[in-house]
Amino acid sequence: MAEAVYTGTIDREATRANTRYIISRVVIYGLLAIFSLVYIIPLFVVVFNSFRTLPEISQNGLIAFPQSFRLDAWPDAWSTFCIGGNCEGMQKYFWNSVKMVIPATIISTLLGAMNGYILSKWKFPGSEIIFTCMLLGVFMPGQIALLPWAFILGKIGLANSVYGLILVHCIQGISFTTLFCRNYYVSIPDDLVKAARIDGAGFWRIFYKIILPLSPPILIVTVIWQFTGIWNEYLYGVVLNSGTNQPITAALVALSTNGTNVRVYDVMSAAVLIGALPPLLVYFFGGKYFVRGLTQGAIK
Amino acid sequence: MSVSASTSAATYNSSSNGPPLRDRLAKLVPIFVLVPSIAASFLYVFVFTGWTLYISLSNSTLLPTYGFEGLENYASLWANRRWGIAYTNLFVFSAFYVVCAMAIGLMLALLIDQKIRAESFWRTIFLYPLAVSFIVTGTVWSWLYNPTNGFEFLIRNLGWTDFTFALTTDRKYAIYAIVITGIWQSSGFAMALFLAGLRSVDGDIVKAAQIDGASTFRTYRKVILPSITPIFLAVAVVLLQFSIKTFDLAVALTNSGPGISTTFPATYVYDLMFQRGQIGEGAAASMMILSALAVVLIPYSIYLVWHRRREAGHG
Fold first, then answer.
1. Residue A194: its chain B contacts at CB < 8 A?
2. Does residue B113 share a domain with residue B11?
3. Counting CB atoms within 10 angstroms of each CB, which of A126, A295, B170, B303 has the fewest?
4. Interface predicted TM-score of the whole assembly (ipTM), two decimals
5. Cis omega (within 30 of 0) on the bond before B258?
6. CB distance from B28 to chain A under 8 Å?
7. SS3 B201
8. What is the CATH classification number for the domain harbouring A165?
């Protein structure tokens, strides 16, 4: 071994580095803990309040640990609570949203996959320009489309109906889904498609045999994106539909801006959770794909 | 295209001139499949915009009419006090929202980038607000801001008896309630983008900096962060775009109140079109929103094209 004189300083240096490391870890985890508390508190508040009793809420405030536990608020919010004169709770609005989101998600995703496939593997003169024009739809503010949609849906007899909203979300969604799928399919080597064409495979065959089997990652991203986006959408839901044909977001606003009622926080908490649950479940189970969709949607 | 030519050559039918009909039809299949989507997008992007533009120049009130009125609606919009409040709010909101959400997002991303344990657990917590609608967030936060049983009540109960935190009931400060909630909802999003950026930085450059003896702080400041400037710009543009479109949050959180103090351009459009029956002016206001988006997005897309060309040139 080298001279013993040095080991002392090395040890001291090592301990110093070690203390610094520990301090930095404490700071890092401390900050993370504080911020997660800020992020998680509102969720806890709603969950807790959906199990607490009203007298308890008014006595201890909204932000408190539950002293009691009861489930009464949930069935109440689901089937008997009055929203805008209709006393059937959230169920109708919840099913409206389900009936809207499932077809709209599936159709817009399939169209996006087809468009993406064509715009990346079957390019033709002008296809890039068409792609750019479709992209503009991503940035359009919904307000621009309100009057035209109201007029068109009225003309074709889909005013104030869930089918009208499906149509709106499909057409609005095409730009997103095409963008996602096209950017993904561009990364599939062209040679794969060329080889298949030389073997005599046609447009559909290549799609089924080559493109679709490679697609699950992007299809999951697209489905999650469309599902959460359409479920959470409010503007079209409140403008184009009324009364019991509105989606759940509109019902939630009607419920919480209902100024005359005494605020029944327990039932309202349960109602809010019913409205938030589907996208939250999608997020907790498909988190990886959800994040991928976000980053792709934003940066590309 | 050369490939499809060779396929048709392979199945070339000598009895006819040129490729057989079947092959020529097959070539058109992609275009046929694409046509409905092109038509729908064209309708959505160009026809609807043109339509709304036209209504904004007409004398429409309760129903669309097509008497041409020029810029009358725009003039009366800009003379309106409420529109003044709306765009002032938009500026205030955008400034705080974009800057703070980016700052917090960057900080969280840097914290998470320190090889911490249970990374996905932390990420899940910071990002879940984004899965939930602005309607849900706004509703819940409006309860939390409520002085009689929200934050104020909590802090007073803890002993600070004259604590006041009544943002949403104060005309002057209600906009900051929306700012805070907006930041809460979106900083996780900024974090995810920054984190993706940090992870994409070339590991060799970072190692080289560390071998040269640069501290962690210096490595970030001098090496890593400068190399992700495009991400900063992307995050800023996306957040700005969110703030220009702010509607749901303002509706659910304050419903444009107290009074009209938290009116946003988008909530005012709704109000003009569907509460007051002034759809001409409402259309004018929605054209202003579109212009605001264009002001942000057109320079950004020009920058992107320029940036990509430059990258390609260097590569």
1. 3
2. no
3. A126
4. 0.88
5. yes
6. no
7. coil
8. 1.10.3720.10
Contacts of A207 in chain B (CB under 8 A): none
CB contact under 8 A, A147 and B273: yes
Q: Is B140 on the interface with A (CB under 8 A)?
A: yes
- Let me know whether B7 and B108 are in one domain: no
CB B146 to CB A38 under 8 A?
no
Indicate the pLDDT class of residue B314, thresholds 50, 70 and 90: low
B301 and B231 inside one domain: yes
Is there a domain that residue B266 lies in?
yes
- Give the amino acid at A165: L
Q: If you write DSSP's letter for every residue of A29-79 in order, what string do you get?
A: HHHHHHHHHHHHHHHHHHHHHTTS-HHHHHHH-SSS--S----THHHIIII
- Quick one: pLDDT at residue B107? 95
Domain around B299: 80-314
Number of domains in chain B: 2
Q: Do A194 and B10 touch (CB under 8 A)?
A: no
**Residue B255: its pLDDT value, please?**
86
Chain B residues lying within 8 Å of A249, measured CB to CB:
133, 135, 248
**Minimal CA separation from A30 to chain B, in Å:** 10
- pLDDT one-digit tens code per residue, A18-68: 888 889 899 999 999 999 999 999 999 999 999 988 888 888 888 888 888
- Tell me the CATH number at B257: 1.10.3720.10
From chain B, pick out residues whose CB is under 8 angstroms from the CB of A272: 136, 139-140
Whether residue A54 is contained in a domain is answered as no
**Residue B7's pLDDT is what?**
43
- The CA distance from A71 to A43, in Å, is 17
Quote the CA–CA distance of B57 and B102 in Å, as a whole number: 38
Angle between helix A127-139 and A91-121 (nearest 10) = 150
